[in-house]
Design brief:
Strand content: under 5%
Distance between the termini: 53 Å
Number of domains: 1
Largest sheet: none
Helix content: over 70%
Number of strands: 0
Radius of gyration: 22 Å
Shape: extended
Number of helices: 4
């Protein structure tokens, strides 16, 4: 049942933002938000090991800041260079029409 409401909401969001630009702050955060998913647990485990006896509730703002900071650094050091490399390889392969056609049209040879 929830899926029906979610689909309707997403359709409405897409229609709303087709004619409008997203807020720049959200665009900037969205570029590196996947890094939060990738590193948040590692940061929390590190805090758990380093500060096992500290009050978890009091450390929450510090943990959140650390997660965001580490995520942004991870984005700059790993994600962004990887995306740029993938885009460069994609552009290179797109210019190599023969290679692309060959790779798509001929299955690899089976070596006994």
């Amino acid at each position: 049942m929830f899926a029906l409401f979610a689909v309707a909401w997403v359709i409405r969001e897409v229609q709303f933002f087709q004619g409008r630009a997203a807020p720049p702050l959200l665009e900037w955060g969205g570029r590196w938000s996947y890094s939060v998913y990738l590193v948040h647990n590692t940061v929390l485990v590190a805090f758990g090991h380093l500060l096992a006896r500290a009050n978890g509730f009091a450390l929450w703002p510090v943990e959140l800041a650390a997660i965001l900071g580490v995520s942004y650094v991870f984005h700059l050091a790993v994600e962004r260079p990887s995306h740029r490399l993938a885009q460069s390889v994609g552009r290179f392969l797109a210019r190599q029409r023969r290679l692309t056609v060959l790779a798509i049209s001929q299955p690899p040879a089976v070596v006994p």
